[in-house]
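Cross-check.
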Amino acid sequence: MGTASIQYRTYADSNRVFFIPSNPNASTAFATITERLHSSLADEPIPVGRWALEHKLMRDTPSCLPTSASQRPAQPRYMQFLSLTYFPNHGFIYTSPPPGKVSHAHHGAGSPGTVAPGASSPASPTPVPQQTATPTQAPAPNSQDHSSMVMTTVPLPACSTLFQHFVYACQPFWCHRHTVTVPGGVVYDVGDFRVRIGDVRQTQPAARVRGTIVEIEWKGPSLVTSIASLFSQSKKAFGGPRTSDLPDDDGDSGIDMAFPEGLEEADIDGEI
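Predicted model, tokenized:
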């Protein structure tokens, strides 16, 4: 796998994404991570399905006009298209703002105690899962402020249509830099966590393996388990099952307040 460090990104309070890069001619960490997942954890990983990812990166084309000596070189602008199988109805688009807004954001960022409009606060996570950063590596001085980028969601078919539009109709202004995919990832449930593992493969402009991605999502205890636990605790607080000596405030409601013992996850429309 080489000596490259593990890169990670937090994009939600309950999610962590790790990327382990690999050399082009070396095997990835997929088999090692899967083996460790089964041998090093107290909870047995339960395979629950497959997952896939596709990420396309576009960059604006440089101007044909020469840059004057007094003019700063323009910062490159990027546009990213992301689709995930576990968000089947959504496509994610992550774009650089117009140059005027970038300048305004950097100007506002120089004032103490101010947050640039459209930029997330330092404590808030970056909302894009595919972006990775090395914790020990300081950003380059001329690199674009990623906190000023904008993410939006569109219906998945519209995401593909927009990408094709920029590839063909806007070719003089935007160029397709690369496409990476996770074609056959595996999903495990491990206790209160859901773990997604997959090999990242570049398909454009040249096919090659880039590494392995691991997403760890905290799902928390089951909703049914939580309700059953609360119901059991309430019964213990009254010393066991309800008797005639205990007050019954629900007797005149006409509603059966007893917890249904046969309740299953399938009976609930969605987790909270």
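Confidence is low (pLDDT under 50) at residues 1-5, 105-144. Helices lie at 30-39, 99-109, 156-168, 223-237. Passed to J.P. for a second look.
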